[in-house]
Structures are given as C-alpha cells and as structure tokens.
Amino acid sequence: xxxxxxxxxxxxxxxxxxxxxxxxxxxxxxxxxxxxxxxxxxxxxxxxxxxxxxxxxxxxxxxxxxxxxxxxxxxxxxxxxxxxxxxxxxxxxxxxxxxxxxxxxxxxxxxxxxxxxxxxxxxxxxxxxxxxxxxxxxxxxxxxxxxxxxxxxxxxxxxxxxxxxxxxxxxxxxxxxxxxxxxxxxxxxxx
Length: 191
Fold this sequence. Notes:
The protein is mostly beta strands. Helix content is 7%, strand content 53%. Strands 1-2-3-4-5-6-7-8-9-10 form a ten-stranded antiparallel β-barrel. A hairpin with a 4-residue loop joins β6 and β7.
C-alpha cells in the first residue's frame, strides 16, 4: 500500500508544467515610504501560464507491475490567481482514490512549488522545480516514501507535448542509489 501511496501521491503535479520558462529573477522586496501601505502582490508571468492547465483532464495511469487505470483531474485557478488546485479522482486496483494538489510559483525561491495529499497516505508531499523552455518539461524533485515507509528521493518529469496532451513520469531513487520509473500518466484535455 505504501508503494501505491507514493505512486499515486504525485498525480496532481503532472500538469504543473503549463508554465513559461522561469528565466526571470526572483522578485525583490521594495519597501514603501514611511506611512504608505505596501501594495498587495500580484501574479507574475509564471502564474499566468498556470492558468493554461485549468479544465478537466482524462488520465491514463500506468504503474509498474499493475494494469493501466483511469482517473479524472479537475484543475482550477484560485487565491487571486496564485494557485492551481487539482482535484483528482480515480480507481486503482479496485480501490477508490481521491487526491488534491496545489501548484504555484514562489518568486522568492525562483521555483515552482507543489503540495499533494490523498486518501491513501497520511503524509504531505512537497515538491519544487523549474521549467525547461527548450524541452517544454517541468522537472520537480522532493521526498517520498518506499514500500517499507523509508524516505526516498522522488523526481518528476512532465513533458507538454501540446496544450491538450501531457505525459508525466515519476522516478524514485532506491537505497542502492539507482533510479527507477514508478509510473507514467498520459493526460488528455476533455473537450
């Protein structure tokens, strides 16, 4: 169950690559003159590109050692345009699955950031990464857990073939230091 939890725990991150290259420098803090209220932050170009993922997506999930399964991801922009929220529902090996993720851009870190929670794991997953404009790929890294509950390094590669088709892959580095692919998800935008 821990393996399926780890594998499923990143479904929401798969569409976070609908973003432009983050070649811009992180925002610097500008202090207003004394007596002047600071301006509220506004979404930047990276946030604007997250909007491209808004909509409903059909997902085909291929996990190592299991037959393919299906899911549906509903993505919405919220919180004044800063966050993309993903509500995912699916069926994995006869078990109902529900998860929720958030993705945004942190101008202080200069990175995309994401979180994930689901009904098969008590652990919060946190990832961060950058977008490669040349390959149209968002690369994210973070920590996950293996089948024995040990912390492991996790890597995601999210290739945006078109605005309506995205291929997500998740990899895990084992105790032996070798990386192995755990899953592949193909997302197709619902018309």
